[in-house]
């Protein structure tokens, strides 16, 4: 799962329906997951509707991002210059491998091997943990949800709620095994306290702190990290070295632009008015400390070239599109087999590897709910539809889908065929036995009833009534 | 080796960005008239702080803060206290003799000062310069922030305007205590940072 765009190993093609099967067929779990995310979505709605200028903020956010992405070269240079003036070291990485090598290089320079890390989807994307561990570095994820999945040797199933797919009883088992909590204990308060004690010692022991970046400001050279737990702050306030890893699309032009985005982010993500801690770092802590900022491309400049999908670079990783997505909610984040799941992940993943992720744009009913909640107005469901067009053009569709589409297209081009097919359908639905129309070959009817056949076709009815 | 990589990649990334011009969509100015202001921003702040799990106290003097703190059980039994406001409390851990932040590891309480409260989300801006060490905001078991209610702003736009040009170093909006809902969406206060947050609103 720690695949990167530059990885030389060719990874298996993801078939979303197959990957989702174990989750979806566990009816109870699927519903439990669905409800948990819908709860978050409802909290988001409450917060969004409490801000009368919500739509105005979305428009501003979208316009600011559009402007920034168009002028990204200039803003990156501004940011670099201003960050350096504050005493930070700025590194540039063209891809995941370079990013990982730069981080390892900093650790080697300081001869350090114990890392405390807060949440960063970018480092997930680059497979940093895996890479560092292979090089003998101990990496401790300090976000509670990420620590849970790390101890279970899993990956996050959601970009904001990494352990949303895990039940408290399972967390209890994991903590019993790794942290020595009481067997059978599953009270979230008790388990969180155990994690607090465990991670305190890791914080005090950590030699270098790694964080992601929520926003970086071109005009000041500063960066902003948002957390609820305070783990990023503890992680970078004890050790002398802070490494901040960010995708180049995280930039904002002006300090005041942060107002728009800090108002949107937490409300969209978890239905909070703002995260508990919104930390602003302008340069290293003191003259004896270091702040390293790694700017990572890893496919972003390529995505910027595409008129169709450029707006996906606006994403601030709030996760609102996942919380609302009927497919994500029922199939779980792991079914996407990608760092970023859900609607935005289904847009981003095929831009990296179209063949591998070609089934993801079909993991969508085109209901458009993701587009409605996106705080930066990415036209997600339009992009998912555009991807399908693209995949057909690239001849990447599976044979079954290609032939059925070709058949449908032929049918629609021959009116007499279309009307006879309709007639045949109406007759056979009326007369064929249920056991045949609902046999296992008709997958659509596995858990659904077929509609009652109408007595006549619309064309017939229209001829009589016009 | 890193420097060479970074220089080549820097060039490559910037060149790729410049190879594709995508027009000049304007950077919008924010129209302040379209932003919500509250009839009673202080009441809104108190409401929002409670919503995010913090506790507010409207007080008139340092003496009043001392009295309220004294009645809080975790304060009266606290062993290590760092106070950045000697008028409120003398404290018993002296930051001026500590230069390794790890030494604050077993501090129970910190009494810090905030610059201004934000009505819309119950946040308080704490400037790094007000702290001998920024870890003091995150490492104690309990945190108290004293802030002037007269300096309240309505929303984040006003907040960033108030900060103006950010000073070198650190600054943070604190909205309630440290929290997590990573285990089955059950909200638990006190994830890694403070277990509770007391906010004292001075005139």
Plain-language structure description:
The complex is a heterodimer of chains A (466) and B (203). With 466 residues, chain A is an alpha/beta fold. Chain A folds into 2 domains: 19-301, NagB/RpiA/CoA transferase-like (Rossmann fold, 3-Layer(aba) Sandwich); 414-465, no CATH class. In chain A, 52% of the residues lie in helices and 10% in strands. In chain A, helix 3 (54-70) crosses helix 12, helix 9 packs across helix 10 and helix 16 runs parallel beside helix 18 (380-393). Chain B is α/β, with parallel strands linked by helices and 203 residues long. Chain B has a single domain (39-202), classed as NagB/RpiA/CoA transferase-like (Rossmann fold, 3-Layer(aba) Sandwich). The longest helix of chain B has 17 residues, at 2-18. Chain B is globular and about 65 Å long. The chains are: A alpha/beta (466), B alpha/beta (203). Chains A and B meet through helix 2, helix 3, helix 4, strand 1 and helix 5 of A and helix 1, helix 5, strand 7 and strand 8 of B. Strand 9 of chain A pairs antiparallel with strand 7 (169-174) of chain B.
